[in-house]
Amino acid sequence: LGLTVAGPGVREYLISDANVASGDPVDPILINASVNTNLRSFMDIDTIRVTHAVSVGSPQQMHYTYDLDKGMIVQVWRGGFLDATPMWHSRGDGSSRPSGSVLRFGKPIMALQTLGSADGAWSADTTGTSYRPKGYVLDGKARPTFRYQIYNTMVNDMSRILDGKQGIHREISIENPVANLYLRLAEAEVIEMPEEGLYLINDKSYYLRIDDTTAKPIIRNANGHKELIVAVQKKISYSILF
C-alpha cells in the first residue's frame, strides 16, 4: 500500500515501514495542517472502511475527507487535523482518523446519479454510471479540485473554506450536461427548511445553504429517512455550515 502526504513546499513522499518508529508505549503520531495539506489513507466511517480517502486539512482548522470512489464528502471537522498513529506505528493498518470534533454524513454513497424521476431510488453502487475517478489537481495554494468521469462526462468537484470559518463551500461543475442528473445533498432523520435556500439537518446538527438560486432541492422520503436531492445542469454550489 502506498501512502502519501503533500503540502506547499513539501514534495509528495511515500511513507513506508522503515519510516515508522517502534516501541511501547506509543506516542500519538499527529499531523497538524499548519499549511493546506492533503493526505491519502484508509478512513473508517462507522463500520465502513473508505479505502480511497483523501483528507484535506487547512490552517483555519477546518478539514474534510473525500471518498474518491464515490465522489462524496464523507465527513468534516474542526480542530486538529489527523491522528496517523494507526497508519504509521509499527506496520500499521493504513488508516488515519480525525483529531478534532467530527461530523459524518452517513454511509458513503454515490454523490451524483441519474434518476428516472425525482422519486427514483438512489443506488448504492456505481453500476451503469461508467464512474472513473481521475484523482485531483491542486491550485496555487495546494487546495484540491477532485475530478471524475461519470455518464461519459467529466465532473470537477471543488471545496473551499468559507470566510469567517463558518463552514465549507462546495462547487460541482459538469462539463457536458447529463439528462436527469441529481446530486444527493444529505440523508438524515429530519430535514427542515426554515427559510428559502437554507436547510436544517437533524435538529441543528448542521445547515446546508444552497448558493445557486436557480437550484430547487427536493426533500423526499427514503427508507424511513429523509433525503435532500437537487437536479444538476452545468453547475451547483452550496455551503456546509457547521
Strand content: over 45%
Mean pLDDT across all amino acids? 90
Written as H for each helix and E for each strand, in order along the chain, the element string is EEEEEEEEHEEEEEEEEEEEEEE
Question: What share of the residues lie within helices?
Answer: under 10%
Shape: globular
Task: Report the biggest beta sheet as strand number plus sense, adding barrel if it closes.
Answer: 10 strands, mixed
Uncertain residue segments: 9-23
Oligomer classification: single chain
What's the N-to-C terminus distance? 34 Å
Describe this structure in words.
- By secondary structure, the chain is mainly β.
- It is built from one helix and 22 strands.
- Strands 1, 2, 3, 4, 5, 6, 7, 8, 9 and 10 form a ten-stranded mixed β-sheet that branches. An eight-stranded antiparallel β-sheet has the order 12-13-14-15-22-19-18-17, with no helix packed on it.
- The longest helix has 4 residues.
- The two termini are 34 Å apart.
Short structural description:
This protein has 242 residues and is mostly beta strands. The chain has one helix at residues 85-88, and strands at residues 3-7, 10-15, 30-31, 37-45, 48-57, 62-67, 72-78, 82-83, 95-98, 101-104, 112-114, 132-138, 144-150, 153-161, 167-174, 181-188, 191-195, 198-201, 206-210, 218-222, 225-231, 235-241.
